[in-house]
Structures
1.
Amino acid sequence: MTPTSITGGCYCGAVRFHAAQAPLYQTNCHCANCRRAVGAQSVAWITVNRANFHFDKGTPQRYCTDTGAWRTFCPRCGTSLTYERDTLPDEIDITTGSLDHPEDFPPTKDFYPEEKLPWVHPL
Ligand SMILES: [Zn+2]
Ligand SMILES: [Zn+2]
């Protein structure tokens, strides 16, 4: 696995993807929107350029959040996969937890620390 070929997929294996570049950012988001959407206290993400991201297997379900962003998840097992905003048309966020090697992509920045749950420790 080279850092310029990132692969991942959902829990059940119905959806697989890859990104053909190193991440632009590696973050850990504490916002209430991510928390509810994913069902976790915080959500780690890597960000890549949309042109370099491809679904290789399966078709994820897509929905628009009330903040105007698009989230995808596996329609079979529910794994949260990606996040896109029209205001950042060249970027897509991928859940670090859906990567095949999440250990290689530690977050380097906390997003929305002001929305962090009090029992979650920041970086
Ligand atoms: Zn799945
Ligand atoms: Zn968030």
2.
Amino acid sequence: MLPRIDEFAFQSGRVLANKYEVLERLGKGWEGEVYRIEEIATGIERAAKFFYPHRNLGDRTMKFHARKLSRLSSCPILIRYVTHDQIVFRGHKVKFLVSELFEGEQLVVFLRRQPKKRLTIFEAMHLLHALAGGLEQIHEFGEYHGDLHHGNIMVQRSGITFDVKLVDLYRWHGTANENIREDVFDMIRVFYDMIGGAKVYKSHPAEVKWICAGLKRSLIAKRFRTAGDLRFHLEHMEWDSM
Ligand SMILES: Nc1ncnc2c1ncn2[C@@H]1O[C@H](COP(=O)(O)OP(=O)(O)O)[C@@H](O)[C@H]1O
Ligand SMILES: [Mg+2]
């Protein structure tokens, strides 16, 4: 038995699979590590996710991500899947997925830079709208994201609104509808956190509270069955208190 790999820690400048040069590490998580890489033959920068072998038994994790990204390739909120490859690292075969690089930042990092570490209600509603419209297309396939939180949402300001990309997907048990409802709940929780969380919730206008529904799952599920319902609501809601 080879010792298990808990970290790759590739240095910048290292060449992998004779094709890619490592530029920097973008993230380290439960399944593996993500790097900004350059495809040497073309000079194109991409993102590559390297899976820890014990999190990718039978290549199941790699296949799950690649297939799901491919099936949902018409959804612009997901990053484009490009290809997969393999390296040998400390005797282990290590699979990695190469995808489009998104030049945004994690929502958690973006929020930290904001005054009082939060967004104004209108900014947050714009971001929520971009998120809901993007997820709506995934939900229309009967699919779901499964792991929506401020570390997996990448954002970049674009005029008055936001370009949003989702990274990482997760496969849960349960029906598609249950998981779609969970996506909607997670998205609303992200909105709730973006505007200051529990500390300031009381002071928000009624329109915001109607959307957040005090983060009560059953109430949210009744109001918005899918991301599309939420997107529609944001486009047609009436303002009484503001
Ligand atoms: N295509 C990409 N473009 C730019 N950054 C990315 C991309 N994919 C992942 N990242 C960055 O790497 C981090 C970790 O990637 P993620 O897929 O969430 O893996 P994990 O959470 O399992 O480590 C992300 O939070 C994001 O900051
Ligand atoms: Mg992640």
